[in-house]
Specification:
single chain, 190 residues, alpha/beta, Rossmann fold, five-stranded parallel beta sheet, 5 strands, 54% helix, globular
């Protein structure tokens, strides 16, 4: 099994591209969202750290956003609680898909958390900043201040691009995206 990891800016289209590969996808954002909804252990840990900021189970994204917006350091505090759980889920995902030819890792902080290993195929999803901003503004409950805090927690795009095996340009046109994925699959399947 080879690991294909998608990296790039927030809103660049990593999740969209991850599905186009048609291999099992580990979507960290989806895992975190499920943990917020279903993991009482996680809820208790976060409630203990921020007793006056978290109301009741399940965890609410709005409350977590307020915690991060209140103090940027809180993002790291939350990360220390959440990331080990996500790593465990990723480990289980890799184990259960060990017989697949490829798996796709859609993990926003993949390089930041040093999750990459030697034979990983890292693909940088590059998109026009204006188009990213437009796409992000189309999302509901988006907070530009929160996006900036999250971006500060990430490595610069030029570093991610340099660390990548391939670069896919996302022009937000579905047919072009499919062609680009096919080209990469052809190269890595040899």
């Amino acid at each position: 099994m080879r690991r294909i990891a998608l990296v790039g800016d927030i809103g660049s289209g990593k999740t969209f591209f991850s599905k186009l590969f048609r291999y099992p996808v580990f979507n960290a954002d989806l895992i975190v969202s499920n943990l917020y909804q279903k993991d009482k252990f996680l809820f208790r840990k976060i409630k203990k750290k921020f007793p006056d900021k978290v109301s009741n189970y399940p965890l609410k994204k709005e409350e977590l956003s307020k915690i991060i917006l209140q103090k940027q350091k809180n993002l790291n505090v939350l990360g220390k609680i959440i990331h080990p759980l996500v790593r465990k889920k990723m480990k289980n995902f890799l184990k259960s898909n060990k017989n697949k030819k490829f798996v796709v890792l859609d993990v926003p902080l993949f390089l930041e958390n040093k999750l990459n290993i030697k034979n990983d195929i890292i693909i940088f999803v590059e998109a026009n900043k204006k188009k990213i901003k437009k796409k992000l503004n189309e999302r509901k409950n988006i907070n530009p201040k929160l996006i900036n805090i999250l971006r500060k927690n990430q490595l610069p795009a030029r570093f991610k691009k340099k660390k990548s095996t391939y670069v896919i340009k996302n022009n937000f046109v579905s047919n072009t995206a499919k062609k680009n994925v096919k080209l990469i699959l052809k190269k890595i399947s040899k």
